[in-house]
């Protein structure tokens, strides 16, 4: 059967967003990056912004995000994406500008750029994938790694005396006067995916309305780094990550 | 023709005012002595109300060079400035800018190092600038002004060269030129390019697709070695063209000279005074002042050196450019160095003494 025969117009109940191209993704099977990429692509399309978007990709697992979503991209040095985005948005105020970053990139090496871009109230959105580990480099401890969690650089589990505490970037972002919308979502179930999409849409809308900076944290998994199956990873995430990184809006001053 | 207006301003102020006048779209900087007047002058001028130029004080030099990267990736004329320790922090960004082939202008008002060093003038960042301070095989197009007038003139020139070769361009001045006040005629106003012009002139830029069939991606990343080698070779080819076409230098009283001083920036001005003193005593000396430190005037120095008995390289450092002068003349004649360190600017008499010592 050909592709056309399989997909008859009347039968289509679900379609990949046009902006998401057919390049095979390099992500591990079961990784939530693909879902979040799809949501971002859908929102850009629904906003009619495909011609006016400039996105910034990080260093980390999503370093190649630019291969999959057909908008213009700049690939930043490790941690510096919010600095790039700040300049881009100021120079092109009518463009939709967002960064897509992981926790090592955003919450560790790029903490200064993140906090200052957010607090300068840059009209950008930061999509923050938090999987509590450095995925791309092979599963090292991240600033977000939970106490007790084992990684290759804390093989006996993260402990305060040796490694200090996990960092809640969204909580910090929420107390900054420059932020407009700070939310923590996940993509483990269909309802959660729908909520995450609505959050991304809201953040992008606020940035285009000039309401300030926006942070959408996606509590995520890393089945390769965590050495668990995709299914077990989501279970582990719900049991361990979500209690420490509770879901929901931390701040929304854009409503009024 | 109407007479041009002459201003009496500092070198750092000239950089700022020239930036506004040459259609600069954005400046991103962080305070550091002795160059803070650049950001201060821009803030006082409020160009966002006139030309629409963006001026932003960043949280660090790391952020400012990456803001420059972000802006440069969209085809805008963007720049930053700093002084030696801040420029060290920017080296990662410079490498990325060169790797992604992005045009921008960086102004370094050099102070003495290493480390926190001093806030007094120096030329000790020659190696860092001309031999690559960041990682990988790349070059910075480097202009070395020796007057406030050249500070004003080189901003536009640096942008032109940066866009011509899609590579960062550095204006490398010592603290003397940044802090010194001189008469200057500022360049004529040139409007900022429109969005349409940028999209047309920079088809590679991430401007948003705006109807373009394929997305533009700004990156220096390539995991396939074979492709990465080709990317490098393409960049090297570009550098070769730059070396062939962009060498700039000033030649002063070299024709009848037995000896030659090679010096850049304010060292070249001290050399001119030394030359006057030496000629009064019957010693025929000339000056070769490299204006582009990269590409370096290698051939020109070799040619001028042919009938000379010796070369004195005068620098405010422990001997950096001297290596390139020695390579240029292939050790066919004596090449000596004279320099002061730690922020001390030598006076013409001590340079004359050094010259006499070489002649003996």
Task: State the main characteristics.
heterodimer; A: 256 residues; alpha/beta; Rossmann fold; seven-stranded mixed beta sheet; 10 helices; B: 360 residues; five-stranded mixed beta sheet
Q: How many domains comprise the coordinates of chain A?
A: 1
Q: CATH fold name of the largest domain in chain B, please?
A: Rossmann fold
Q: Give the strand line-up of the largest sheet of chain B.
A: 3-2-4-5-7-6-13
Beta content of chain A comes to: 15-25%
Number of H- or I-type helical stretches of chain A: 10
The structural domain count of chain B equals 2
What is the radius of gyration of chain B computed over CA atoms, rounded to a whole number of angstroms?
21 Å
What average pLDDT do the residues of chain A reach?
A: 96
Secondary-structure topology with pairs:
The complex is a heterodimer of chains A (256) and B (360).
Chain A: H1 3-6, H2 33-47, E1 53-57, E2 72-75, H3 81-91, E3 96-102, H4 103-109, H5 111-119, E4 125-130, H6 160-163, H7 169-175, E5 179-186, H8 190-208, E6 213-219, H9 223-226, H10 230-244, E7 248-252
Parallel strand pairs in A: 1-2, 1-3, 3-4, 4-6, 5-6
Antiparallel strand pairs in A: 5-7
Chain B: E1 6-10, H1 11-21, E2 26-29, H2 37-45, E3 54-57, H3 61-72, E4 78-82, H4 84-89, H5 91-99, E5 104-110, H6 126-130, E6 141-143, H7 148-165, E7 168-174, H8 175-179, E8 181-185, H9 195-201, E9 217-218, H10 225-245, E10 249-252, E11 259-262, H11 266-280, E12 285-290, E13 292-294, H12 298-305, E14 310-315, H13 321-329, E15 335-339, H14 348-359
Parallel strand pairs in B: 2-3, 2-4, 4-5, 5-7, 6-7, 11-12, 11-14, 14-15
Antiparallel strand pairs in B: 1-8, 6-13, 10-12
Helix pairs in contact in B: 1-2, 1-7, 3-5, 11-14, 12-13
